[in-house]
């Protein structure tokens, strides 16, 4: 099976006759006998997922890395974190997906959160099943726990991913962004309730 391991700002994907789907163009080096080909619009999502990606305004551009060897993956010198998913679902902003192991399924959920204020219309992806998910973030990824009766509110520009049984809602009104005159459109924050973990990045987009 494929194994993912983060080493500083590089992801090491060890292949033993297996395949890893990775962000297109993220390969910086490889060793061994490895082949690369396009995985199309996310790979494994099916035709309906591809249509939803078109509607969301962005397709997830992934490549398949197959064979025996080690692939070094990176994206703009961003920090890399490997999340172990066990019969669960991770909701992640698509641009943060660096690589996924074969047993994880990808499906687009809705147009990205930032589109509500910036109009960029980025895709948000559900990653389902069991396996390893590597994501990139601008600065070290921070995991914040959400427990019943203890909701969490985050800035949408800091949000990267959520794991577990979480319900997300928008909280409109003044945010810390609009207080410094950097807001665009209607200011809002993201409120998470339930039980799980929310991952944020310390740098703003």
Automatic annotation (TrEMBL):
This is AIM24 family protein. InterPro entries: AIM24 (IPR002838), AIM24_sf (IPR036983), Trp_RNA-bd_attenuator-like_dom (IPR016031). Gene3D superfamilies: Mitochondrial biogenesis AIM24. It comes from Nocardioides imazamoxiresistens. Coiled coil: none annotated. PANTHER family: ALTERED INHERITANCE OF MITOCHONDRIA PROTEIN 24, MITOCHONDRIAL. It holds the Pfam family AIM24.
């Amino acid at each position: 099976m494929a194994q993912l391991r983060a080493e500083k700002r590089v992801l090491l994907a060890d292949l033993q006759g297996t395949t890893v789907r990775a962000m297109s163009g993220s390969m910086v080096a490889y060793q061994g006998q490895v082949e690369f080909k396009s995985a199309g619009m996310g790979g494994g999502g099916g035709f309906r997922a591809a249509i939803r990606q078109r509607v969301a305004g962005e397709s997830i551009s992934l490549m398949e890395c197959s064979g025996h060897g080690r692939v070094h993956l990176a994206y703009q010198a961003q920090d890399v974190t490997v999340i172990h998913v066990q019969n669960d679902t991770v909701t992640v902003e698509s641009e943060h997906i660096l690589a996924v192991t074969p047993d994880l399924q990808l499906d687009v959920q809705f147009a990205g959160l930032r589109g509500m204020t910036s109009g960029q219309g980025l895709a948000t992806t559900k990653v389902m099943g069991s396996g390893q998910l590597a994501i990139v973030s601008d600065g070290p990824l921070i995991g914040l726990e959400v427990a019943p009766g203890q909701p969490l509110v985050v800035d949408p520009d800091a949000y990267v991913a959520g794991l577990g049984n979480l319900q997300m809602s928008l909280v409109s009104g003044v945010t810390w962004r609009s207080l410094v005159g950097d807001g665009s459109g209607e200011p809002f924050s993201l409120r998470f309730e339930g039980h799980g973990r929310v991952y944020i990045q310390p740098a703003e987009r």
